[in-house]
Amino acid sequence: MSARALRSGLWAAMFGLGLVLATTAQAHGPDTAAGSGGYYTFQKVVYQNDGGWPDNKAYFQRFLHHLAAHIAATDGKVEIRVVDFAAGVQLFVMARDDADLAKSIDSLRSQGVRFLICSNTLRAMKLTPADLYGVKEDDLVPSGVAEIARLQGLGFVYIHP
């Protein structure tokens, strides 16, 4: 094979590789960034909420904001479960008297977020679902920690912000 033919073949191969890379970049590059609707595929996520000592209110506000931002970033292509146990249950105690927390919880629920409450924690804190903002019997799980493990076994990705 002549040097000229080798160079021509090499240039053709490089051109072909360039086309492949350009096509891949179009499929996965900046044009599919958050906000365009195509960057994220459907996600199943379990968030742990066990409070944020020493300032639960500030923690809960940030936590609820993270949930809303997650939904917005995925254009709603996400199934979110929040497992609330230990001091995390205080979110629902506080929301009974805090309209901003209650509004955030309601907004997230309307977008499909499911808040799950640990029954062990309720017993330890001597609380009932009636003591918590918007919590019903079907929101209760036997154990918060065991529920996180169960959901991970069902394919949910674990996040503890």
Describe this structure in words.
Strand 3, helix 5 and strand 4 (140-141) form a beta-alpha-beta unit. This protein has a five-stranded parallel β-sheet, with helices on both faces. The protein is 48% helix and 15% strand. It has two domains: 3-32; 43-159, Hypothetical Protein Ychn, Chain: A, CATH 3.40.1260.10. By secondary structure, it is an alpha/beta fold. It contains six helices and five strands, in the order αβαβααβαβαβ. The N and C termini lie far apart (61 Å). Mean pLDDT is 85; it is low at 9-31. The longest helix has 26 residues, at 3-28. The protein has helices at residues 3-28, 56-73, 90-94, 99-110, 119-125, 144-153; strands spanning 43-49, 78-84, 114-118, 140-141, 157-159.
Residue stretches low in confidence (pLDDT < 50, at least 5 long) are 9-31
Number of helices: 6
Content-based structural category: alpha/beta
- Look at the structure and name the CATH superfamily of the largest domain: DsrEFH-like
Rg calculated over all Cα atoms: 24 Å
Sheet bearing the most strands, described? 5 strands, parallel
The beta-strand count equals: 5
* CA(first)-CA(last) distance: 61 Å
Spatial order of the strands forming the largest sheet:
4-3-2-1-5
CATH class of the largest domain: Alpha Beta
Helical content band: 40-55%
Element-by-element helix/strand order: HEHEHHEHEHE
General form: globular
